[in-house]
Amino acid sequence: MLDYRLDDETETLRKTVREFAQEVIAPQIGEFYERDEFPVQIVRQMGELGLFGLPFPEEYGGAGGTYFDLCVALEELARVDSSMAITVEAGVSLGAMPIYRFGTPEQKQEWLPRLCSGEALGAFGLTEPGGGSDAGATRTTARLEDGHWVINGSKAFITNAGTELTQLVTVTAVTGTRPDGGKEISSIIVPSGTEGFAVGQRYSKVGWNASDTRELSFSDVRVPEENLVGERGRGYAQFLSILDEGRIAISALSVGLAQGCVDESVKYAGEREAFGQPIGKNQAIAFMIADMEVRASTARLAYYRAAEKMLRGEPFKREASIAKLYSSEVAMDNARYATQVHGGYGFMNEFPVARFYRDAKILEIGEGTSEVQRMLIARDLGVG
Ligand SMILES: Cc1cc2nc3c(=O)[nH]c(=O)nc-3n(C[C@H](O)[C@H](O)[C@H](O)COP(=O)(O)OP(=O)(O)OC[C@H]3O[C@@H](n4cnc5c(N)ncnc54)[C@H](O)[C@@H]3O)c2cc1C
């Protein structure tokens, strides 16, 4: 039987996050966004609400929920603001999840309680200045020396890497050569503040301006051998599986933005008058909003389906790519339409739709570009 209704617990979570986003985030996020500032206090409050621990077991301080719960929460956050949604997405799905999925019992005990409570933030350093889509082309290296990994290289565009809450970044690095001559890539935890680990200035970005994105460099950074995450040489496979899940989360975030565009447009179309009547009385405007709702609703089904397969333990790569590709393009389309519905005010930063417009584009780029998703879907179909 198909049943995509939320159960009582998930519906309560959805309502709680919706209220938090409307009451706490909405009134203040615009100012942080315009100042390019990371709102530590709001992030702490999201931690107190339990958002960073949603899909983790209670023994690590998590909520004992599922990855789908995380996605539902991300959708409601992004319906109001994407900077805070990506802060949670990256903190959970990229910061804590690699340790939970692949870490040793000691690593889990050391890091997960802090990461689940939101008292600490983790980051995931895969992309390098020389390339993101071709992630296997990693140039950062790590060599074993006297029981320590010595890391050299750099990473680009890393979310949550330099906030005052950040305590670690897990990086991928070349640790040797595979028997087939390819690069052996491993994942290693680098605690913030380790000597030789430099965190660059925040990038000046088009969108997600209240989130933290940095370039990182590693110059003879020494961390204990035990900081290896999972098996040596499994780093590439690990991050591919982390990205498969992450695509469902980015899809949920995209659906939230697309739905936020509908919310704002319905409101504005009822209030704004032109030619003696609300603009929403014009079919041209009403149809734009109807189309936006159609896209948001169908994109939601795409991520529900991918999450359902993942929770059932079935292969879900193709569905995750479909959901990510479709909903990020829906977010872009809805942001364009919502700005149009708002006319000149849609171009003013004080209106949420202007933020949605600026935040939508990255959804087609981060955690695998639209072209990469099309490649993955085509390959899964046996073409390309
Ligand atoms: C705000 C922000 C936050 C980010 N956060 C993180 C993070 O926390 N951790 C992290 O590791 N990374 C992060 N990233 C990096 C992001 O995942 C990469 O930017 C993305 O994967 C694309 O890589 P790239 O920028 O190197 O583009 P490239 O790989 O250089 O691609 C450039 C263009 O070429 C296309 N292209 C590349 N190869 C092919 C091909 N074979 N066929 C067709 N087209 C192709 C791409 O689709 C794209 O259009 C972030 C990026 C941004 C902007």
Automatic annotation (TrEMBL):
Its cofactor is FAD. Keywords: FAD, Flavoprotein, Oxidoreductase. Belongs to the acyl-CoA dehydrogenase family. This is Acyl-CoA dehydrogenase family protein. Residues 123-221 form the Acyl-CoA oxidase/dehydrogenase middle domain. Pfam families: Acyl-CoA_dh_1, Acyl-CoA_dh_M, Acyl-CoA_dh_N. Residues 233-381 form the Acyl-CoA dehydrogenase/oxidase C-terminal domain. Residues 8-119 form the Acyl-CoA dehydrogenase/oxidase N-terminal domain. The lineage of its organism: Bacteria, Bacillati, Actinomycetota, Actinomycetes, Geodermatophilales. The keyword Oxidoreductase applies.
